[in-house]
Amino acid sequence: MTTPDHLADRSIAVQRSPEFQGLRRSFFGFILPLTALFLLWYLAYVLLAGFAPDLFATRIGDSTITVGLLFGLGQFVTTFGITMAYRSWANRRYDPHAAAIREEMERGELTGDANEEAAR
Amino acid sequence: MSDEINPVINMVVFGIFVVATLVIVFRVSKRNATATEFFAGGRSFSGPQNGVAIAGDYLSAASFLGICGAIAVAGYDGFLYSIGFLVAWLVALLLVAELLRNTGRFTMADVLSFRLKQRPVRMAAALATLVVCFFYLVAQMAGAGGLVALLLGLSGPVPTGITVAIVGVVMIVYVIVGGMKGTTWVQIIKAVLLVAGAGILTIVVLAMVGFDFSRLLQMAVDASPEGEAILAPGLQYPNPVDFLSLGLALVLGTAGLPHVLMRFYTVPTGKEARRSVVWAIWIIGIFYLFTLVLGYAAAAFVGPEVLTDPATPGGQNAAAPLLALEIGGPVLMAVISAIAFATILAVVAGLAITAATSFAHDIYASVIRKGQADPKQEVKVARRTVVVIGVVAIIGGIVAQGQNVAFLVALAFAVAASANLPTILYSLFWKRFNTTGALWSMYGGLTSCILLIVFSPAVSGGPKSMFPALDFDLFPLSNPGIVSIPLAFLLGIVGTLLSKPEADHDAKQAEMEVRSFTGANAEKASDH
């Protein structure tokens, strides 16, 4: 068991380490654009449904399938797509990187002064 | 029509479900001594198991009865619910699930209070949890009352009250005996039954129209007094701002729902939490595609006029069971109704254990006992709390009879998105965030949301209001999300910038960030 102070020192050291900063960068680099994408796409959908109901009511050819229905199903497709994209990214890229830092942290190797870490 | 409904078959099918699940709950609950066993099922569920259980928790009466009914009556506007409910899972998957699992132990408040002042933040988070659970519970109970009216062909306060009370009592037994492990198994069984039942019904319906969805829509248009309008948005929400407000609450609510967040603690690692969400998204998404078919099918085969007729027991919440009766006769209806009932029972149990855990772990152990409570005592308090929650839910359920279930759940989502989500995201991702910001955001989001609901047309002033005779609707929208969610985000920023951080701010923030991103020092599964 580590004492709280020890844990705090090590956490700060790890947080400042280039490995951890790299992990953070890769997380936000992947997550933020994807989050912006799906939120904007969803917002576009809701706004179109609210303010352009006539567009959504337009039928495709002779069928009763409407543009709105296709937009709605499009939301399903993108949700499934983003889910699988995230899963594969997280399994391939994120997990090994995070596991390496976790092991070092739990073994206590990334202790000591942050500058030393940065120089390593 | 009600002479075709066979109450005996209905009760037998439902009775089988209750007995079977109770047996399972008793069998899995042999080890429920420790707090981790009782509150988090020993963290021993696999990702796929938990994913099915999440779907079980999430696909409530709102998703099944509520959405089918809303699509059957209001057409496209009902579909918006399912899209919001589904897309919302991306927020949970990308931003919350794994980090939350790595950081906390039993409740949402574990994460929120990790690097902030324990007692005030836990108190606020526990209150928000209790309010969300209350709205959600009442919604489920409203569904239960409507359903039994239909199942037994009886309506009126006495049979409804008795049924709601039975649901409450069975739920109490599930949770007290089974803890999180028993509750999780109930969710898993129910999710499998629900998705299978809805899937079979969907296939039967599609087979009846020659697998031509366009033809089904045409039949729905022909049967509806609104005609083609059911294919386009605007029937239920003629005001586009209302639409937007609801849409925001739906998409941002899921990742702040305490009973969903608590499920992430039942798996051993953050990676398993991710797997469970991936499973849940597939199951939930496919289920919502089923409800799209079933809703329009209910319009086509049962007819919106029957569903909006006050003489129809259960009203629009009865769309799915009545569709089953129409196409498959009394036995299919009994099966679908029993599944819907099982859905309600399971969700109610999930909510009850969440509310009880939050009370015992956050309010009792941390606020009242100042962190000095014995874990056994904590479990004991949780068990007692379940009884109180059961009683409150029964009373609330009787009061809320006749409301659309999906609509009531949307209010719970608005509270979750306003009171919980901003603080969850800030405490995970914003280094400067502090206790004052958290309290401003949580209390501001919670109170603004509740006040706007009280003064909305949903509560008073219109024929569909909870109190149609009164008139104090000062706020024009039926869902408060568009105001209360941005307000809560803003209050979090303002509160933080106007106050000083805690003394150990940097160290705790580092500890939390490293732990949430890497899983270092996260809570482990209990040994077996």
TrEMBL record, chain A:
- Annotated TM spans: 27-52, 64-86
Q: Which InterPro entries match?
A: DUF485
Q: Does the keyword Nucleotide-binding apply?
A: no
**Tagged with keyword Transmembrane:** yes
Q: Which UniProt keywords apply?
A: Membrane, Transmembrane, Transmembrane helix
In Swiss-Prot or TrEMBL terms, this protein is called DUF485 domain-containing protein
The organism named in the record is: Agrococcus versicolor
From TrEMBL, chain B:
Gene3D superfamilies, per database record: Sodium/glucose cotransporter
Q: Classify the main location.
A: membrane
Q: Which CDD domains match?
A: SLC5sbd_u4
Cell location: Cell membrane
Identify the domain of life: Bacteria
Note the topology in the membrane.
Multi-pass membrane protein
Keyword terms of this UniProt record: Cell membrane, Membrane, Symport, Transmembrane, Transmembrane helix, Transport
Against Pfam families, the record matches this protein to: SSF
Query: Which InterPro entries does this UniProt record tie to the protein?
Result: Na/Glc_symporter_sf, Na/solute_symporter, Sodium:Solute_Symporter
Task: From the record, give the transmembrane residue ranges.
Answer: 12-29, 50-73, 79-100, 121-154, 160-179, 191-211, 243-265, 277-302, 331-360, 381-400, 406-428, 440-460, 480-498
| Claim: Magnesium is one of the keywords in the record | no
In terms of NCBIfam families, this protein maps to: sss
Record's family?
Belongs to the sodium:solute symporter (SSF) (TC 2.A.21) family.
Q: What is this protein called?
A: Cation acetate symporter
